[in-house]
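Please fill in the sequence for the structure shown.

STRUCTURE ENCODING:
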């Protein structure tokens, strides 16, 4: 029996769109923010740079998303680090370990495969790890669906 990892979440979706168009909507911070639900007006994904914005969902209106961009490979990969618990309104764990989020794009026969991987949950305190891990498992399913709908509406 294979061991179950609680350190890494990986989700994939295939979008019937060319990789160049998918990248335009993923690798542009303002476009990213529109489908992700964060206000990133006037910001860019720049390696080593910080990106920050307020959530646009009324239920998360007091929450902030802050991330440090690690890597931008146009048409292929976007990576950043964030503190998953810091996104909550009134976050009580601002110094929590960060996780690494990696978006990868790959050509497939039906269009473009988008894979998102978030890793580093084992560095989060045991008291909060399971809750954050599960909320992000569900969150990435929601976000990939939102991204797919966003792409389909713009091709």
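FILLED IN BY: designer on duty
SEQUENCE:
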């Amino acid at each position: 029996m294979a061991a179950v990892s609680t350190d890494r979440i990986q989700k994939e979706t295939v979008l019937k769109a060319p990789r160049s168009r998918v990248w335009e909507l993923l690798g542009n911070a303002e476009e990213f923010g529109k489908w992700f639900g964060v206000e990133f007006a006037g910001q860019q994904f720049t390696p080593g740079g910080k990106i920050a914005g307020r959530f646009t969902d009324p239920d998360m209106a007091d929450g902030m998303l802050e991330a440090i961009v690690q890597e931008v490979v146009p048409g292929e990969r976007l990576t950043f680090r964030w503190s998953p618990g810091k996104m909550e309104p009134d976050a009580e764990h601002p110094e929590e370990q960060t996780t690494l989020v990696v978006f990868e794009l790959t050509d497939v026969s039906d269009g473009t495969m988008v894979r998102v991987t978030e890793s580093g949950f084992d560095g989060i305190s045991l008291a909060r790890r399971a809750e954050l891990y599960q909320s992000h498992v569900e969150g990435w399913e929601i976000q990939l669906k939102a991204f797919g709908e966003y792409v389909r509406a713009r091709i």
